[in-house]
Amino acid sequence: MERSEVTKTTKTETTEDLYGQLAGGIGVLAVAAGALAALKNALGIPWWATGLVAAGALVLLGYLAWWARTRLRRLLSRKEQPVPAAGKAAAATEDVGEGEEGTEALPAVHKTLTTVLGRAGAIGREEVILDDEVTTQQIDVGTVYEFLLPASRTAEDVGKNLGSIASMLGVTRLHLKLETSRKSERKVRLLVLKEPPFSEPFPPPTRQEIIDFAGVPLGHDVTGKLVGVPTFDKASLLIGGMTQMGKTTLVNGLITCLLIAYGEFDLYLLDGKLCGLTQFQPVAVRYEASDDPAVLESMLDQLIVRVDKRYTEMQEAKRNRQPAPVFKPVFFIIDEAADFYVDDGSKESQEVVRRNEDKSRKLVSKSLESGICTIMLTQRPANDAIPVKVRDQFLYRMCLYVAAKGTAKVALGDSYFETVAPIHPALLDASIKGQAVLFATGVSTLIRGFNFPDKFMWDVVDEFAANREQALPETPLKQAISLLRDKGVDFMLTADLAPALGITESDPAEAGKKLKDLLGVPSAGRSAKGRGYRLADLMKAATAEE
Ligand SMILES: Nc1ncnc2c1ncn2[C@@H]1O[C@H](COP(=O)(O)OP(=O)(O)OP(=O)(O)O)[C@@H](O)[C@H]1O
C-alpha cells in the first residue's frame, strides 16, 4: 500500500472514532442527567446535594473495584509462583514475560529471586531481578546466586532482610552467606547452604595452605575456605563466647598459624585458664599461668616499657627525618581476661584492678602504632567483665555462641546489630564447637576455628624454637644456650658454665661476676648446689627485642 493511501485510511478511521465517542458521550450525559433527576426526586434533596451524593457513590464504587482487582491479582500471582524449597532453588530459574506473539519482548525475570526478595522486602513488589543479570552456580555445600539488584536498591536492603529471605527459602539465617561488592552497591553474592553450617567438619589446613593464605587464617568459612584477617599490624582482637565453646582451641589454632607463617615475633602469654596455652611456653618470651590481677599488672608494665621505648624511637626517626623504624611484632594473649579485672574486695586488690584498667587501655590503644597486638579471650562477655574503655579499643571482634544479644554486643561492639548482614551468635549451634562470628573490617563472617592435633602443634612449636635459636647472632649468650641444650638440661651452675665459656677465674664470686658481664644476664639465683643460669632466662634475654 502506498504511504498516502495509508494516511488517508487512518484519517477516515480517526474521524469515525471521534463521531462514535461524541455520540457515546451524549448518551452518557443524558443517562446521568436522568439518573440524577430520579435520585433528586427519590431523596427529595436539592440539586447540589444530589450531585455530591452521586459523585461520592461513584468514587466509592471505583475504589471497591480497584481493591478487588488488586487482591485478585496478588492471589493469582501467589498461586503461579511457588517458592522453591532449599536446595531446589536453583532449578526454579524460569523465564517470565518471554516475548509473546504480537507484543514487544520483555526481558526475562528471575522468578525465584524476584519472588523471594520481593516478599522479604529487599526489593519492591513491582521490582524484578532480571534473569540475564543472575548467575547461578551449584557448589558442594549449596547454591551460589550472583545478581544485580534493581537500581533503586542496595546490598544493604538484602543484608537487612536475610532472616526473611532465609525463611522464604525454607532455611535459616545461618544457611545464608551474603557477600557484597566494593565496586557496585547493586551487586550481590548470596550462598544458600543445603545443610546447616559446619554439619561436616573440615580438615585443618596444611602448613602450605597456611603459608599461602593472604593474611592470618582464623578458621574455615561455611564453604571450607580459609578465612582470617589481613594482618595483626595495628589491630587487636577480642574473643568472647560462653564456656566450652572453643575459644582456647581457636586461639591455639591462631598461635599455630602465626608460628608457621608470621615470621619473627615475640609472644607474651597470660594463661588465666592455667593450662590453655601451656604448649606454647617454649616459644614465649614470657609465659605466666595465673589468674592473679597482680600478674597482669606486671606483664602490662613490662609491655608498656616496650611501647614507650618504641614511641621514643618513632619520635627520634621523625625528628631526624629518617624512615619510620620497623618493629618486631609482639603478641600479648590473655586467656580468661575477665578474671584480671575482678578484685577480691580488699582495698589493695581494688587498687590493682583499677590500675589494670588504665594500663590495659593504654596498652591496647597505644600499642597499635608500635606493633604490639593484644588478644583477649573471655568466657564472661558481660557488660562489666572487660572494662568498656579497654574493649572499645579492639579492632577485630569475634564471638562464639552466647545466649543473649546483650552479651553478643559486648563482644562484637554496641552497634554491631546495625551493621550490614549481622549474624546473631545466639543462633549458632552450640553443639558444633569452635563456631564464631568474625567481625573484621566491617564484614561479618561465620567461621569455625581450627582444631589442630596436638602433635601438629608440638612440631610447629619445636620447629619455631629451633629456627629462632639458629638465627641468633653468634654471641656468648647463644653459646651458653647451646651448651644447656646439648646437655639436655634447663639449669646449669655458674661453676660449670663459666669455664665452658672460657672464664678461668678461680674465685667463684669473681667468676660469677665475669660470667654475668659476658652474658649480659644476671644469674637465676641460688639453687641447692649453688648459683646458676636457667635456659628459659637465657632464651628470653637472647630473643627479646628490648
Ligand atoms: N573447632 C573445633 N572442632 C572440634 N572440637 C572443638 C573445636 N573447638 C573446640 N572444640 C572442643 O570443644 C571443647 C571446648 O573447647 P575450649 O576449651 O577451646 O573451649 P573454651 O571456650 O575455651 O572453654 P572455657 O571458656 O570453658 O575455657 C574441647 O573439648 C575442644 O576439643
From TrEMBL:
PROSITE patterns: FTSK (PS50901). SUPFAM superfamilies: P-loop containing nucleoside triphosphate hydrolases. The chain crosses the membrane at residues 18-39, 45-68. Keywords: ATP-binding, Membrane, Nucleotide-binding, Transmembrane, Transmembrane helix. It comes from the Bacteria. The keyword Calcium does not apply. This is FtsK domain-containing protein.
